[in-house]
Amino acid sequence: MKLAFISDIHGNSIALEAVLQDIRKNKIDRVYVLGDLCYRGPDPKRSLALVRSLHTQVIKGNADEWVVRGINQGEVPEQVIEMMRMEREWTAAQLDGQDIEYLASLPTEMKLEIEGIAIHAFHATPDSLFEIVLPGAGDEVLKSKLMSASDADIFIYAHIHRPFIRYMEGKILLNIGSVGLPFDGMPKAAYAIVEIEDGQIRTSIERVPYRIEDVVKQYEEVQYPNTEMMTRIVRNGLVK
């Protein structure tokens, strides 16, 4: 069974289309989505429609929660909260009531069993949509924050936009990176493949090129509230 896990699309439908094409090329059996579907990109409506067209399990990310109810004080640095609220209002205005209701109804984790292998997937941590656990954290931190809530064989999360794979005490910890806004210096869409066959497990991080300048043009054409910063991130694959 060949599984694809995608996340952190952030309204970048062009990157999502490239990833879905790559998924078809790789003959994936099932696709799962770990949240952050719409917010901070120039094409939230189409991004959400593409996700929904997959007819698969989808969980909520922090950005989906923000689209539904706004950004609370203390959830982002004070110096950026007003701009991020403007971006959230722009995003919500591109969606309709059914879209918002769909985002609000999403669960916050998924537990799968594939050919006897247990997978626990969530957006940031099992207990939070917002907590940041980076790949450089020590083994004890990774285990306590990400791997202590269940007895799974594979733990999969997103949120940090920096993909990695770690093996600890017979378990696999996998961050699948970001489709629409990678932060690791490689401006290519990221997703993960997990293949399970006869007890054997293969994991990989895929990096997919897409039409970055078309996304930049979209930001400019829709007059996105934070175009300069967001196009810099898209072009460079870095926050700064």
UniProtKB/TrEMBL annotation:
Highest taxon above the source species: Bacteria
InterPro entries, A to Z: Ap4A_hydrolase (IPR050126), Calcineurin-like_PHP_lpxH (IPR024654), Metallo-depent_PP-like (IPR029052), Pesterase_MJ0912 (IPR011152)
Coiled-coil boundaries: none
Residues covered by the Calcineurin-like phosphoesterase domain: 1-198
Family: Belongs to the metallophosphoesterase superfamily. YfcE family.
The protein, known as: YfcE family phosphodiesterase
